[in-house]
Amino acid sequence: MRTYIGIDVGTSGTKTALFSGGGELIASHTSEYPMYQPNNGWAEQDPLDWWNAVLDGIRAVGHYDGVRAIGLSGQMHGLVMLDGNGEVLRPAIIWCDQRTSKEAAQLTELIGAERLIRLTGNPAMTGFTAAKILWVRNNEPHIWERCRHILLPKDYIRYKLTGEFATEVSDASGMQLMDISARDWSGEILTKLQIDRALLPKMYESPDVTGVTLANVSALPAGIPVAGGAGDNAAAAIGCGITAEGKAFTTIGSSAVVYAVSDKPRIDVQGRVHALCASVPGKWTVMSCTQGAGLSLKWLRDLLPPTPLKEWGNAKAPLSEGGQGGSRLSYSQMDALAADVPIGAEKLIFLPYLMGERSPHPDADARGVFFGLSAIHGNAQIIRAVLEGVAYSQRECLDVFREMGVEVGDMTFTGGGSKSELWRQMLSDLYNCPVKTLSRDEGAALGAAMLAAQSVGDSVSPPTNSSEAVIPNRERSAEYEPYYQLYKSLYPVLRESYKSLAAL
Q1: CA 324 to CA 312: how far, in whole Å?
Q2: For residue 406, is it within any domain?
Q3: Residue 237 within a domain
Q4: What is the domain extent for residue 368?
Q5: CATH for 394
Q6: Which of 3, 135, 212, 399 has its CA 20 to 30 A from that of 126?
Q7: pTM of structure
Q8: Residue 62 falls in which region: left (phi positive, over 0), alpha (psi -120 to 50) or beta
Q9: Does the pLDDT at position 324 exceed 60?
């Protein structure tokens, strides 16, 4: 049987999965590793932890004789620096690191704000790779002097597997060093930033073969092709079948993403959403990223005290944590409680900016708000407000897409949040389009395996819909609208106050 391996280098762990040509998951293994925060706002990981996790995963999934190809995916925007011998020079600075505000300003000054957005599709971001490179050069010159190779997280794994320094367009376009329209490194940016092009890996399209496995570097035999792969969201799009204009997905995990495919580069000059190269050759993406989506619900769940079941009304779903003294609500219970609260949460609105915000308000100083809180509000109303606030934030991002001419009539909902029946209906009503889920949600690992198959002329079947799509209800859509418009009006009013708070 022909099989394909998808490797997804995530933030909390690496998933290695083996798939058949029919898209069935044969075996899967996830190895976890730590994130280090040596200073407030910093986030680092050891690339060798990723590599050891990959080795564990390859040993665990087995079935090597039939493996035709390997695909890679992973967390975007990370900075891996190697010396001339291919050895790691310092811990990787990963996507959620926030140390580079000065360097983001430096990047804007050197390139020009409008020119930077036109070339890279994005304003200068603290989380993106270019600012991290400048930070190392500014603050660790002894490391910079020894640097000979700059890689993204998944591309470090490629190097360890194949010995090749290579990347592909979807992940590389999140570095802010590319001209995304040309789908290649920008000579203009590299010149103005004084970054030698030789430091950067060779560029490929996502389904290209970028190398083959070396002998004696893992349990895999030598000579297995390794595809370009994709950044995590671009790979997830492949796994969801989002490969053509008009299709999009919303994923709600800790953060949330709305991701759509476009036949041409579509760039928001205000920088409210990201423009990147797609993992489909000749196509681009528009992508939003909101920081505190499922994280907001988890924060609330952890905040609510353990309480006996009898005090939670008609929330009949099984409790997630037992104990005679009481239990925390499960997410399904929170759903049940919120479902009994009318639209608008009894005039309570939540702004989900617990971790600052990226889309559609790129503002690291933004913070969460409950607006309209009164003595009438209890746990059920607060839960409903959080669910609605996250849904409003996704609608606001989709509105930007539509303003840019990216029409979406086919929406797939993935991630942990897609298990919520209430959230599914809420998004459908707010988006005013059908929302479907998948029969299997294997995420980026499946997309990576599908790209691996494509690289050798094969194919892996994508998952089918799990059931009929959720259809928007016109009456509910109309009922949500005034609350959504009020939600949208709050951030502009609070923007300067956020800055004042951050300065205290």
Answers
A1: 15
A2: yes
A3: no
A4: 290-438+465-503
A5: 3.30.420.40
A6: 399
A7: 0.88
A8: left
A9: no
Between CA 340 and CA 293 the distance in angstroms is 21
Please tell me whether residue 340 adopts helix, strand or coil conformation.
coil
Catalytic residues: 232
Q: What is the pLDDT of residue 327?
A: 74
C-alpha 25/C-alpha 100 separation (Å) is: 40
Residue 498 lies in a domain: yes
* Domain assignment present for 431: yes
Q: Is 31 exposed, middle or buried (0-12, 13-18, 19+ CB in 10 A)?
A: middle
Q: Report whether pLDDT(27) > 80.
A: yes
Alpha helices in 340-473 (DSSP H): 379-403, 421-431, 443-455
- Which range scores top for mean pLDDT: 21-30, 98-107, 187-196, 459-468? 187-196
* Percent of the chain whose predicted confidence (pLDDT) is above 90: 81
Both tokens of 22, joined, read 């029919």
288 Cβ partners below 8 Å, 6+ apart? 256, 257, 258, 259, 272, 273, 274, 358, 359, 360, 394, 397, 398, 400, 401
CA distances 377 to 226, 230, 370, 383, 479, Å, are: 55, 45, 11, 10, 20
Q: Per-residue pLDDT for 176 more than 70?
A: yes
Q: 273 has which bridge partners?
A: none
Phi, psi at 502, each rounded to 5°: -65, -30
- Beta-strand relationship, 247-252 and 349-351: unpaired
Q: Note whether 448 and 230 are within 8 A (CB).
A: yes
How many domains would you assign to the chain?
A: 1
Q: Please write the tens of the pLDDT for every residue from 274-287.
A: 999 999 999 999 99
pLDDT confidence of residue 322: 42
